[in-house]
User: Fold this.
Amino acid sequence: EKYDGVEYPAHIKCAIPSEKDRFTSAPSAAQRKDWCQRPLRTKGDINGDGIVDSQDYASYIRIVNGSKVNPNFIPDVNGDGVVSPEDRDIVVRTLRSSF
Assistant:
């Protein structure tokens, strides 16, 4: 699921972002596979619970501020291989549309 008007790469990467040291442990092959198959990933479901909510936003904030997170949490929601403000914008857009 993608938003119209949001620039996603031509090929959305199913790779762990370059900030691997931001995780409490290295993501396993199963965790990476799960991430690639998450239907709401491109709309901001960072923690993989099937909904986009304030917990996803809080996870993004923790990651960009240097905290380590669970390896199931994948903050690169636009699939460009890095955690960036564009990822935050997607999460915020989803949160705003739910009100």
Summary: Residues 85-97 form the longest helix (13 residues). The CA atoms of residues 60 and 75 lie 6 Å apart. The radius of gyration is 12 Å.
